[in-house]
From TrEMBL:
Name of protein: NTP pyrophosphohydrolase MazG-like domain-containing protein
PANTHER family for this protein: NUCLEOSIDE TRIPHOSPHATE PYROPHOSPHOHYDROLASE (PTHR30522)
All copies of domain NTP pyrophosphohydrolase MazG-like, residue ranges: 41-114
Top-level taxon of the source organism: Bacteria
Coiled coil stretches, renumbered: none
Organism for this UniProt entry: Microbacterium aoyamense
NCBIfam families per record: mazG
Pfam families listed in its UniProt record: MazG
CDD domains per UniProt: NTP-PPase_MazG_Nterm (cd11528)
């Protein structure tokens, strides 16, 4: 791996590779920073979660500068994990291996771009993607294999509803008409006139709402995040009013 360009080289406008420089910077930090040296993959997970959340904030509610910065912070996490992996005594790999594997996978999953397959609609693209993914993951025995339990609950619910539809599971997995969703919300979840009487019924009500979101092509997790942003604004506004207590 090539070394970083020196300050003198940068001053002469020598062409550099910013991604390579970032990887080299990560290596230097790992070599010389006593805090970084003690971090392993597991210890790094909370920072990955935090940086991912901050990137989502930047995408949904931030400026272009914030988006660029948060993308960089998330990239640093990838470089960090790859650098840790490169020093594994039994099965090392580095950022070049990660990038190479990613490129190969994306080429396989886009035969309509890199081969002679044809896809003229997003649905046809998805067919090619799923076929390539199924070939790669042939050892999987369940549609649930690879679904992370660490996803936020609403996002996981939406993901599992899609998996349920794949295996032909009856409602609430199957897509339904909006008026049928309203009936389900009334009869099954009882969210219109009667609040849930237990946590189990609350779970039914929440799942029914995710069914409604999926039937309309909405993202339940994003919908709640955006509504909570409105609530945050209302709270901050109340704090700034003279009558706030």
């Amino acid at each position: 791996m090539a070394g970083m360009a020196s300050p003198e080289d940068r001053g002469r406008d020598v062409v550099t590779d910013p991604l390579r420089d970032a990887a080299d910077t990560m290596r230097a930090v790992r070599d010389r920073c006593v805090w970084t040296q003690q971090i392993d993959h597991r210890a790094l997970v909370p920072y990955l979660v935090e940086e991912s959340a901050e990137l989502i904030d930047a995408v949904e509610d931030g400026s272009r500068d914030e988006l660029r910065e948060e993308l960089g912070d998330l990239l640093w996490q990838v470089l960090f994990h790859a650098e840790i992996a490169s020093r594994d005594a039994e099965d090392p790999f580095d950022i070049d291996d990660v990038a190479r594997g990613l490129t190969e996978k994306m080429v396989r999953r886009h035969p309509h771009v890199f081969a002679d397959a044809v896809a003229t609609t997003p649905e046809e693209v998805l067919v090619h993607w799923n076929a390539a993914k199924a070939a790669e993951k042939h050892a999987r025995t369940s549609v649930l294999d690879g679904v992370s339990r660490h996803m936020p609950s609403l996002a996981l619910a939406q993901k599992l509803l899609g998996k349920a539809a794949i295996v032909g599971l009856p409602n609430p997995g199957d897509p339904v008409e909006p008026e049928l969703v309203e009936v389900r919300l009334d009869e099954d979840a009882r969210v219109r006139d009667d609040p849930p009487a237990s946590e189990a019924e609350l779970g039914d009500a929440l799942l029914a709402l995710v069914v409604a979101a999926r039937a309309s092509g909405w993202d339940a997790e994003r919908a709640l995040r955006e509504r909570l942003r409105v609530l945050e604004g209302e709270i901050r506004g109340r704090e700034q009013t003279p009558e706030a207590t």
